[in-house]
Amino acid sequence: MENQKILIQLDLSKNEARIYLALVEFGEMTISDIAVKSEVNRRNVYDSINRLIEKGLVFEIRSERENLYKAVDPSKLSEIISEKEKSLQKIMPSLLEMYHSKPKNNEVYIYRGLEGWKNVFRDILRVGQDVYTIGGKGKWSDERLSGFLEYFAEEAEKKNIGFHIIFDSEVKCEDREILRKLESNHKFLPPEFSSPGAVDVFGNHVVMTSGAGEFLDDDISFTVIVNEELACAFRSWFNFMWLALRKKKQANKFVTQ
Question: Are β-strands 221-226 and 163-167 bridged in parallel, bridged antiparallel, or unpaired?
Answer without folding.
Answer: unpaired
